[in-house]
Amino acid sequence: MDFGETIRVAIGALRANKMRSLLTMLGIVIGVSAVIAVVALGRGAQQAVNDRIASLGTTLLTVSPGQARSGGVMSFDVRSRLLLEDAEALAARGTEIGGVQPEISSNLQVQFLNKNTGTQIVGTTSNYPEVRRYEIETGRFFTNAEDQGRQRLAVVGPTVVTNLGLQSGNALVGENVRIRGIQFTVIGVYKSKGQASPFNNPDDQILIPIQTARFRVMGNNRLRSISVLALSEEKIPDAMADIQKILRREHKLRADKPDDFQIRNQADFLNTLGETTQVFSMLLAGIAAVSLLVGGIGIMNIMLVSVTERTREIGIRKALGATKLNILFQFLIEAVVLCLVGGAIGIAFGAGGAMLFTKFLGWTTQVGASSVGLAFGFSAVVGVVFGVYPARRAAGLDPIVALRYE
Description:
single chain; alpha+beta; 6-stranded mixed barrel; 13 helices; 56% helix
């Protein structure tokens, strides 16, 4: 019996038991499709993070309050403060700084007519669009004079428009909304920036003048963060040193005291978010790969049952001249074919599932050739590994005993 005949016999055996073959492949199909879909979600999340960071610009630095230390021990319940005066000092004395944009924020309820929604209210300065690279889609942004005059003006994100039950931002511009019971006039809607993660949606916020937020809404001048533009990518270290020098002087920190603030550039955010996304992706892919292992065990189980059922057939083939190698290859080919066909179907389902996530849930997914090749290759390895034992058992049967088997 030549190799080609062995393949034909193996394929014929699978066709003779179509339903059993289909059910056997099911574990591999589920495992491969799960791996493809999970890896696609992970790669898409990584790409979304990269796009989000790139949209903010590579020269953007973020200054945030740091934990306070006492006696070398980090205190997590007491945080140092960043005040509006710190941002003003940076803008006035910074020599390596191209722009300063402070933020004060709080999650509040917003009401429009009979609709209301919870969103983030951000008090900021008039240079917010330039520093954060936001574009106005409808209307305009507030001016510095309106900020200093504590005008009750608002620029809303597209998600807020949707949450208030409106089809477009044009319907909201010129209308009044209430924030903490205070009436604000909507003067603009900015373009969507895209949601980088389920926990941070830059489109779901309302921007108001920082002086208005300080005196009429929040009641304090404590900042969430200060965004600072370096003059160029090459000047980022100089800008960070400039910020550190000015803020340490503002906070009256002695030379032996550590900074009570943090300065981070976009590369830091990208690395942190990228590492977090990669860890979660690997974890989810590992969990999905367990189903491949379960599918492989299922294939080995069915192949062992098949060997038992076809013991007499194996004896007849050996009596007709089939060698141990022929029998070994026949059963091994059956196992590998089951895994490869199941892997191909799983790839189709996984890629299709990723497309459905994008279409109906709005999630960013990215099916990569490497993940497809890895899943398909792994399914082939599963077929070989879990098919060897049943194949060896079949090949080792004594032909006389096999012929007498009932």
